[in-house]
Write a structure and sequence with these properties.
Layout: E1 3-8, H1 13-24, E2 27-33, E3 52-56, E4 71-74, H2 81-86, H3 88-95, H4 97-109, E5 112-118, H5 145-165, E6 169-174, E7 177-178, H6 189-198, E8 203-206, E9 212-214, E10 216-217, H7 218-229, E11 237-239, E12 244-246, H8 247-258, E13 264-267, H9 282-288, H10 296-309, E14 335-339, H11 343-354, E15 358-362, H12 366-373, H13 384-394, E16 397-400, H14 403-407, E17 412-415, H15 430-439, E18 447-451, H16 459-470, E19 479-483, H17 493-498, E20 502-506, H18 509-518, H19 520-524, E21 537-541, H20 543-574, H21 578-586, H22 607-620, H23 626-650, E22 657-661, H24 676-686, E23 690-694, E24 709-710, H25 714-717, E25 723-726, H26 738-744, E26 749-752, H27 759-762, E27 768-770
Membrane topology: Single-pass type II membrane protein
Main location: Golgi
Protein name: UDP-glucose 6-dehydrogenase
Length: 774
Amino acid sequence: MRRRAVVTGGAGFVGSHLAERLLAHDIDVVCLDNFVTGSADNVAHLQGHDGFRLVKVDVSDYISVPGPVDYVLHFASPASPVDYAELPIQTMKAGSLGTLHTLGLAKEKGARYLLASTSETYGDPLVHPQPESYWGNVNPIGPRACYDEAKRFAEALTMSYRRKHGVNTAIMRIFNTYGPRMRPDDGRAIPNFINQALANIPITVHGDGSQTRSVCHVDDLVEGALRLLFSDLAGPVNIGNPHEVTMLELAELIRELAGSDSPVEFTARPQDDPSQRQPDITLARTELHWEPTVDVRDGLRETIAWFRNRADLGVKAGDSAASQTNVEVDRRRHKVAVIGTGYVGAVTSTCLAFLGHSVCGLDIDPVRAGQLNDGQVPFHEPGLPELLLETLRTGRLRFTDRPAEALADADFVFLCVGTPPGSDGAPDLAQLESAIQSLAPHLRSDAVIVNKSTVPVGSGNWTRTILEDALEGNRQLSFHVVSNPEFLREGSAIADFIYPDRIVLGGNASDVSRVAELYRPVLDQSFEGGRRGRRPTLITTELASAEMIKYAANAFLATKISFANEMAQLCELFGADVREVLPAIGADHRVGNAFLNPGVGWGGSCFGKDVSALISSGEEYGYLPSMLQATVEINKMQRARTVRKLQRELHILKGRRIALFGLTFKPGTDDLRDAPALDIARRLLSAGAVVSAFDPVVKTLPEEFRAVRLARDVYEAADRVDAVVVTTEWPEFALIDPAELRRVMRGDLVVDGRNCLSEASFATSGLRLIGFGW
């Protein structure tokens, strides 16, 4: 009779290699995984094997496996610093309850039991190299403790079952392992270094890079695990490569093998990051006759090639339906066209391709389409250039200026074109109408038109009518319309797309259901790096309600900021400090602190446009939204108040030199649309002031502002100025040296237009710091 093994975490990086090798030993494998960090893609090539079964099971729940079992291998656990931070409770459960349940299974079946423990049990070791007899130096309450202590508990429980119940157990302590099928975003050094090297972005090394690790190829690790499994040894036994390298040496080696020009950047070391890690493998050598044989250069070359060529980046089968026989893995890749590759369109195209769909972005501008095909993002958005390059490499993403190429076989068509405000505040729908009309000659029957453009309430019906007219002569072709408003914040758009608070879909129930399937990896957080504990809410509505939600959400946030500015103005009049008042208001869970920030006011492409559109739409129906009008007026006044503060302190602005710190409407973007800084600059120039400016991202300004001198840093911008105004809260400005700023300035006035500077750091600098509301 064939032998049979149960492997927990069998769809993970190491577990999948173990399953493969066990099958090669003519041992049937029952693979258990909950797909929190594992992926059915890792064992897809084993699915047709008669002796292989994949079952979706969480080992922290009771485990039942019918039939005989000869071996139980417990490898289920999140296993990277990113996982510890995101999944600390699940990590503890896998090490405690998971170990308890798998030991119970081994006891019931009379099976040989192998526990995958870790070198993390040694903590930040004071003994080097680390023998199995060393008890370790572990912080039991630190950020890594959920993993360290879970594994230490697992070892103790395993030995207790061996002594008390006679279970035939073995413990292996795994040192740093690498190879194909590593999660690209698991946060450990080798995946990070390889991803960065392949993207030609800076390779980030913690500390000065002198801390050491001993890296072992997964083939060597699996060989050691099987030799221990098939022996009578109880362990613990160190399984790892004793060849020790510094993190800096490892980064430089990966850069060399990847043929990359990436520079090395040094970042702060995480808490409890071990300074050294090297196994003493004397026991494995003498008792198991095992030692690693894969040369580190050869192993890294193979791993780099796998990262470079992997076809299914970012897709996990976490939402697969498990059964007692096999897991059904949904491998359908929907075909999506995205019309418009501006900010929303480029992010939507890239993220949908990242989720596993086949996406073609369409833009009438061939230059922009070509730039995106070359991996060049024509605007500033953190993380997007890297993700764009990654998804382009998979072959699932492309861009074109030819409608037939993008639309002919698309199941879904996303409308992501601009709807700028007209002179009356109402959105100009000309671009959207043109995009809808361009669909008609190429639209496939039964396609779903998904409108992400921000449009007036009722535009879903308008979209349907425009398309019906454009399809005149082809009445047999059916299509569906769904509203899917976007809630992407510039500077954090990638996170907003894949980790949203909610996804809003409006339309007929059957149409909405189809679009929801498109978003299934996001709704289930089943993609690589998904946050299983924070799944977004799916909100389904009628078309008009979905369109209204977008406007209402932005109107509320804009009103909240204007409310904060109203309170700041009153605080100045009454002698109160808004910096004490507003946090106390925000501490009420019904209010919250977000967007309760006074200063020079809001800007950007959304708030002003959407509030104006809502006001305009209300007026069409004979209703005047007076509160929203007040929201807009208060915001305009904040910009004028900034200039009045300067006038109050400097009296005459004509001939004064004023420096603006920050030009974009918010940090993390290069967007100048409706930026308060530009409005303030316009007012200062009209008053006869000489204006200089620095922004970390903006290097050119519209012709209207040619008189503004752009500087290379804050100190150059502040050279000989009478006053400085902070107009955008870039994090860099919190690092300003007040003494150096005072040295280069002629005057002594700093207006903190975002209340983001530390008053204490300016106290002894000789500078006068004034803000809003205090």
